[in-house]
Amino acid sequence: MTPITTFAGRAVALFGLGASGLATALALKAGGAQVVAWDDNADGVAKAAGQGIETADLRGADWSGFSALILSPGVPLTHPAPHWTVALAKAAGIEVVGDIELFCRERRALAPGAPFVAITGTNGKSTTTALIAHILRTAGRDVQMGGNIGTAILSLEPPATNRIHVVELSSFQIDLTPSLDPSVGVLLNITPDHLDRHGTFAQYAAIKERLIQGSDQAVVGIDDGPSRAIADGFAEGGADRSTRIHVPRDAALTADAVTVRDGIVSDRDGAPLADVSAIRSLRGAHNWQNAAVAVAVARALGLAADAIQAGLASFPGLPHRMEEVRVRGPVLFVNDSKATNADSTEKALTAFRDIHWILGGKAKDGGIFPLVPYFERIAHAYLIGAASDAFAATLEGAVPYTRCETLDVAVKAAAEGAAASGAPEPVVLLSPACASYDQFRSFEQRGDVFRELVRALP
């Protein structure tokens, strides 16, 4: 735990008692703050009360006695409308912040300049966060990893000069962190997302930019326009404190950037830095970008080239993100259940050929129409879930398909089809391009079921 001493002796309101909210309440209490916590979910309130946290419905609280409202990132700050606690806090003239802001203040008070790597982006955050942490740990560094990747930041050990915090940040978390100041800030990419919570794409991009603006050093992917503009703006601010990451799609290379071509990560002058071409857990151009970012961060933190390469080579990958489940004869089975929209599935389709594609579920806007350019990579499609009719209409005449309805039927059919295809390296790929909620409670459950079905094949 990281006790929060910067609110010692003061009263704070806290709303949202999920895992991160409960960790925040305990950290504030451990640091000497008086915490009054609440949640619309009775289970969260009961858990907090059971751990000695004072709970009370904040609608009836005297807000004049609070120094701040600590808000869970899952609770609306601005859109579609501010949560009622936000309105009460503003009426009382107190600040609204989140757990990342508390960590940043504690870091400045306890160990100014302690290594703090913050990673954001629309896609690839979790893989990049885990990869950076893995490289650093492999090199023997004391690493604490958390944030949006699943472990509440205030559950981690406190900042220290010899300890590196590697933290994934969502746009919601950044929005609640006005003094975000990582030693290394990473922006992977920006595409439209969470507009229901931020109002406009411009506002969403501006929130992402704040992570870079507060960084001592910045590592920015420049393969999309908004991120490239942010990198350019940061470079104009004075000394060259930024590293630009570029994965070229054609013969042209961007000058003054770390680039990846055929799996070779090269510096601005073209000198090779690392080789990820044969690392199976880092397949595809999107993972090459993640790897190049990790190389740049590790170099910024003083790691030698051989230590970086060793960390890259031993990275196991993350569950449900192009996870290699099994090789059965010539057939590779890949669990990409995290791909809940077409943009995510595109990354997997570009990484393989001779694909026996399992897709479907609860469709997102646009369906799979953006994936038409990759249909030539698909040998056969196996449709499951509520999106079957819509996806069949898009595939009609372009890709042979089978309606399977459920995942167990699809796995059996895809395994048989791939084995009989005669292709040298066929792939059975679960990359649904859909939410899971029509048949599963989460993408994790969907991926777990796929893994079990594949491992049960004779």
From TrEMBL:
It is found in: Cytoplasm. ATP binds at residues 121-127. The keyword Kinase does not apply. Residues 1-25 form the signal peptide. Keywords: ATP-binding, Cell cycle, Cell division, Cell shape, Cell wall biogenesis/degradation, Cytoplasm, Ligase, Nucleotide-binding, Peptidoglycan synthesis, Signal. Its main location: cytoplasm. It catalyses: UDP-N-acetyl-alpha-D-muramoyl-L-alanine + D-glutamate + ATP = UDP-N-acetyl-alpha-D-muramoyl-L-alanyl-D-glutamate + ADP + phosphate + H(+). Residues 320-434 form the Mur ligase C-terminal domain. It is an enzyme of class 6 (ligase). The keyword Manganese does not apply. SUPFAM superfamilies: MurCD N-terminal domain, MurD-like peptide ligases, catalytic domain, MurD-like peptide ligases, peptide-binding domain. GO terms for molecular function: ligase activity. PROSITE patterns: FOLYLPOLYGLU_SYNT_1. Pfam families: Mur_ligase_C, Mur_ligase_M. Residues 119-298 form the Mur ligase central domain. HAMAP family: MurD. Belongs to the MurCDEF family. Cell wall formation. Catalyzes the addition of glutamate to the nucleotide precursor UDP-N-acetylmuramoyl-L-alanine (UMA). This is UDP-N-acetylmuramoylalanine--D-glutamate ligase. It comes from Methylobacterium cerastii.
